[in-house]
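#struct-pred

JT: dropping the chains for the assembly here, can someone run the whole complex?
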Amino acid sequence: MSLLAAATVVSTVAACGGSNDDNGGGGSTGGANEASAPGITEDTIKLGAHYPLTGVAAPGYSEIPTGAQAYYDYVNKAGGVYDREIEWIYKDDAYNPTNTSQVVNQLVLEDEVFAIVGGLGTPTHSAVLDFLNTEGVPDLFVASGSLLWGEDPDTNPYSFGWQTDYESEGKVIGQYIADNLPDAKVGLFLQDDDFGEDGEAGLMQYIEDQVVETQRYTSGNTNVAPQMAALQASGADVVVGFNTPSYTALTQLTALQLGFKPSQWIYSNVGSDPALVGSLLARFSQGAVSDASLLDGVITTEYMPGVDAPEDPWVQLWQKVWDESGQEGELTNYRIYGMAQAYTMVQALQAAGQNPTRDDLIEAVETVGADWEGPAFSPFRYSTDSHLGISGMQVVQLAGTAADPQTGILVTDIGDADIEESEAEHATPPESGIPDEEPFN
Amino acid sequence: MSESKTPAPAAGPGRTTEELIEEAPFTATAAANVPSAQAAGGRSFLPKSTLLRHLLIVLLSAVGAVILLEVTDPFTNSQLASLTYYAIAAGGLTVLTGLNGQISLGHGALMAVGAYTTALFLQTERGEDPLPLPLILLVSVLTATVVGALVGVAAARLHGPYLAGATLALAVGLPGLAVYFQGTFGGDQGLRVRAPQPPDVFTNFIDLVSGASATGTKWLAYLGTICLLITYFLLANLMRSRIGRTWRAVRDQEVAAELAGINLGTWRVLAFVVSAAAAGLAGGVMALVVRLAAPTNFTLVLSLALLTAIVLGGLGSLLGALLGSALLVFLPPFVTDLGADLGLDSTEAAQIAPLVYGVVLIVAMIFAPAGFVGTLRLRWMTARAKRATAGRAADRG
Amino acid sequence: MQQFVNVTLSGLTQGMIYSAFALALVLIWRSTRIVNFAQGSMAAATAFIALAIINAGASYWVALVVALIAGFVMGALVERIIIRPVEGGPELNAVIVTLGLFVAIQALIAIIAGSSFQSFPTPFGVRGFTIGDTTIALTPTSLYVIGSVLVVMALLVALFRFTRTGLAMRASAFGQEVARLLGVRVGRMLTLGWGLAAVVGSLSGLLIAGGGFVYPAYMDSLIVFGFVAAVLGGLDSPIGAIVGGLILGLALSYISGYVDRGSALVNVSALVILMVVLLVRPGGLFASSTARRA
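RK: done, full complex below.
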């Protein structure tokens, strides 16, 4: 309690200082750089995060921080943010909350990072949610679509979501089915946690009377034949999956095994990474699967362009950043995810001002975060009332390795908020590839 | 390999069967064997009474812990807090495995029982005060004890790999219940735990001792330390008591023990219950320190880590359990930081940590099969025996 | 009906995969009295070797043979260099060493091969057979798995029952002193036991991988279910390993398919099944009277 009060006092003091410094008006030429907060020195900013780099959850997710690394390197090469170099420290938690709590303790107490950015996973990150919020450490852009981070800013004033939450995604998909496949019998295949549950809550707002079967799988249990057989027996002709990419591949393989051919597969954004799933399935094309692109015709959603749109200016930027970073491996959607989050983080740091406190950063995201333009199709919902991230997505159909838009950009929010089509033009990246936000105060 | 190094007891007249059983040749490990031999050897600057001696040690340890916690930085404080729950659980496990010879790959599940109990009792409506923390931890211990008794009854009939298999299934199976009954246990994302605020007594104490600020992290480290000291005090007395001796007899001399009227099954269950109680407390502390009770906390990795801790430290020794737990907490960040200093990127550094851990386990078992504590004790005793022999030879000559 | 058939068939295939792994554990238990927790990592390592060979353009069968040989060499080396020093010491020390190996090998795979998903080919189809116009959950690949496991089981039974080597291996495991007096070269038998067990383990690793994905930790859940299956059957019996695997595979498949949110109950069910069996038969279903006190 006293901690919070102290933090507020500090922030008020610093805020006054900040406005004095800002005489030069906007941009990066204020006064001198100061060590204005933990993790900020005259020439560096330390940021930290936790990811599963080893163990069962490492495949895929462990690529995200390499993408972020590439983007921070890119920004640093161009002079950093307010001439400060970004130091990006990420640690392994093996997707185990016990480890998460230990490594985040280390990041905050020993490495003294300015903020935690993009910590990955719902159970893992919820272990440090209270810690970060009582210590007053900005906890930005949690890499999970759970509502925990953004729904209740009063309880967790320092935490922010980033990607479109699963409930909003469920609503968008639900409305699409209700509009375009009104007679379909829908079977749901859901991960048995908040991911599946939130998605289901969104879907049910639109297609409750169409759902004929709901099957859930527990992550780690790789035999999904019993679930698929049940969906097949229910006579479902549309299957909606809120699952991870490896389970997309597993469901496709199992359906092949069972001769289960629903007329339409729909996967949530998380599970649909066509490049990844496609490469997993391609191997079985020899003689077994007739067509390499088993995912052809699958419907999914996107909230930003991915590797399936190589012509998109954002993807071209990511490709350039990735090539320049000289790291091993190809550009993947996981890496794009990391870069896009890093891009938002750079926007936040610019907006927080030249010599920000931790509370300045929070205030900056709350005040101007909703106006930032970036790779996402639709804006963030950041305000003092909501810390939820990207507000909408687009329904697309996969064709080969490309994605074919089926709707415009559909913007919505959790609960019974309407779904509206956004008229706004998707922003293109700045020439330099680095955002240029004004300080918020 | 161990018998020859243990000073052979002189089976003189007037010795009870119990003592004979206790000092009979051992088949488990040298480390587990040593404490009794050392007790017989007895050093004298500590009080004669076991209880007094243990009290004194606890007191000294408490002073040492306060100094340690006050001179180290906040992050080390948080690491020490993690150390306490590993050490509490490992202490219980070393009683079960070291003294009683039963293997358990499932103690993580018993910790889960304690952790979920603590988490559930701390889940209160806004404004409503939860029960006092000591009471909640006590309830956690009781719940784990009950579960431990059930498991113990089943386990008492099983041997070697069958016991290992059953407890392995326990480690993997029990956390699954938390996923299934998500209404109560929060499913995959678990129950978040808000650790109660430090009491004023604590704030005043820290102010008095070091003048540092009594942060939440510090409070948790102290809380864990208090639980650890209490647990080890109780366990140490238990190990030295008649009960401890009987456990050893059940482990080493099944037939003799049975002939002496000892009901093997009952004593095996009792050992399981005691170690489950410790695991329950450890789970409670873990829930507070990690601020979460979720199934992913209690994977098989946790159970296996506890087992490696007690063997690496020295089976049957509380000090060994503590040292082994310290390795669990301090080795991975040490290796990761070292890797980063050597210019590896974060991913490579993270991958090195399990590699080093695995290699340490292998190398330690090959070169120090009795664990740290066991090996040191053996060295010391061999040296003493040599000196004694040399002395006797000199007397004769 | 179709659902029941498919749930059954998928349980059968899954059970055979557990059995394959359980067989390797049984073999090593019979020949060295050690439960090898590193079996999963060692199998994963050989699967990655096979994958590298396939990626280099060789056929599945070449890769299979190389992987099995690599498995044998790895098993024998591990016994000679790492296990030998702790053999005859406290039982638990050998367990800790195999745990250490398990962790270290898995870490090494991640460092060398990376930790992303990679698909692993199968020489046979992954589409279910069709009877009339219904497809059943039995694929050429699953037949290949089931066939291989049964052949391995038969070979193991034959080895232990009909050959002198098998007898010598069992003798070495049970009583080294006696075996030595009888002229058995105990050291060589132990090495052979580890080598053979690693071959069976590697085969199970390849069978599990085929038509699916591999990553460094892909064998983790199988270590648990394979071990449970082996204990269920009685660690001493190859037939027990098959039966144990099948019981587990079928039961878990039915629970997963017919109980609401059954997938979450799979692990708990494995615990319950094992406990019930062990309460009735503490040495597993196919325990011989001598094995019970081992």
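JT: nice. The longest strand of chain B covers residues 191-192. The beta strands of chain B are 191-192, 292-293.
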